[in-house]
Amino acid sequence: MATIEAPVRPAIRLHEGRFENEWLVDFTKEDNARKMRAAIDKVRGQLGREYDLIIGGKRIKTQEKIQSLNPAKPSQVVGIHQKAGREHAEPALQAALRAFESWSRTSVEERASLVFRVGDMLRERKFEFMAWLVFEVSKNWAEADGDIAETIDFCEYYSREALRLSKVTADAQLHGERDSLFYIPLGVGAVIPPWNFPCAIMAGLTLASIVSGNTVVLKPSSDSPTIAAKFVELLEEAGVPEGVVNFCPGSGSTFGNALVGHPKTRYIAFTGSREVGLDINKRAAEVPQNQIWIKRTILEMGGKDAIIVDADADLDAAVEGVALSAFGFQGQKCSACSRAIVDERIYDKFLDRLKARVEKITVGDPADNPNMGAVINEGS
Fold first, then answer.
1. Is residue 317, in this structure, part of any structural domain at all?
2. What is the Rg, in whole angstroms, of the alpha carbon atoms belonging to the chain?
3. What is the DSSP letter of 103?
């Protein structure tokens, strides 16, 4: 009788020392600029490929497709994706539930080791992933670098935090009791990230979930599904078991709502608009038949950020900071400076310098690394 060998689990390797942020790339160094140009050329040759849904490790094709387009060249197709519909919510949730049975019982050391490995692999391929951001969401090189560096940071930080939080504590002991405090995985999370940090936020919400022992149905933004597909490929290569992350691009109003309302969804992790976030909060508060818990929501719905400039501020530094914050990535960030509050004693001088600085901003194809690329879509 033939025997079926279990898949070999990668060796557990944990990173030592304190968390440190990933270093950003200095593109004034020609060697780094050359690596970035080479990565852009490599990714350009991979544009237009088709990507499947991934549910329980199985590749699934659909009749309807999502086309991801280069915002700077809308006729250029970055990726073609299967479009998950309402009918895919049930199999995706069931696949995640099946995986949860074993993944939630996997040691935190093994889960953290795996996420550390993802960060190591991403660090080796950071220029390639940066190039995908250049094409799919029109980030210039520095903005793409920041996105990928933050993704690596999440791999490092969340793994360390999972290990720290895994320790059982017993701070209070009452007579006649055995008291202990420990954290447990919740279940299946619906991860719904935005397009403006399509790697960092998408990966952050996903990695925090899985390193904690949860499983995920990932519905990336329809404007940026390709970078998510490449990241899921990286997770598979790193050894994430089938069903732990299920990749399902789809419409928010159909597939997304089906996920949010499903009785087996334990929590929803969302970043996006206030309108959609409040709708998710409302739907998640409803308790359908056969749901045995109250869903949890993690909702980040943007910001309205200001920079305050006092009379004794370094004006040149203040002008540079406001210009970069307000116009970096075309201002498409919840953290962008949308208003400057300036001391009236220096207001006119500040405004003149800011105007002169903004007039120097270059706009173009982010593959050529201007200050600004294109906004994400025609609606923007």
1. yes
2. 23
3. H
Whole-prediction pTM: 0.94
The position carrying tokens 């690394």 is 369
Are 224 and 323 within one domain?
Answer: no
Same domain, 134 and 60: yes
CA distances from 263 to 8, 142, 267, 350 (A): 34, 42, 10, 55
Look-up of token digits 């869903």: 295
Bridge partners, 59 (sequence order): 54
Last residue of a domain, one of 260, 281, 300: 300
The residue among 131, 135, 132 whose CA lies nearest residue 73 is 135
**3-state DSSP assignment of residue 158:** helix
What is the C-alpha separation between 122 and 378, in angstroms, rounded?
31
Digit-coded pLDDT (tens) for 303-317? 889 999 999 999 999
**Do 215 and 76 have their domain in common?**
yes
pLDDT of residue 8: 63
**Residue 292 sits in the same domain as residue 350:** no
Which tokens go with 175? 């007579």
Looking at the structure, tell me whether residues 203 and 324 fall in a common domain.
Answer: no
Residues 144 and 266 in one domain: yes
Q: Are residues 269 and 350 part of one domain?
A: no
Report d(CA 124, CA 20) in Å as an integer.
17
Pairwise CA distance, residues 278 & 207, whole Å: 24
Partner residues linked to 79 by β-bridges: 49, 68
Number of domains in the chain: 2
CATH number at residue 204: 3.40.605.10
In the prediction, which pLDDT does 1 show?
46
* H/E element, 300: strand 296-300
User: What residues act catalytically?
Assistant: 300, 334
Q: Would you tell me how many other CB atoms lie within 10 Å of the CB of residue 347?
A: 13
Which residue carries 């199985």 as its tokens?
Answer: 58
Mean pLDDT by 10 residues, the chain (380 residues): 56 90 98 99 98 99 98 98 98 99 98 98 98 99 98 98 92 84 96 98 99 99 99 98 99 97 98 97 96 97 93 97 96 93 97 98 97 92
Q: Which letter, b or e, does each residue of 327-341 get, where b requires 16 or more Cβ atoms within 10 Å of its Cβ? A: bbbbebbbebbeebe
In whole angstroms, what is the distance from residue 199 CA to residue 215 CA?
Answer: 18
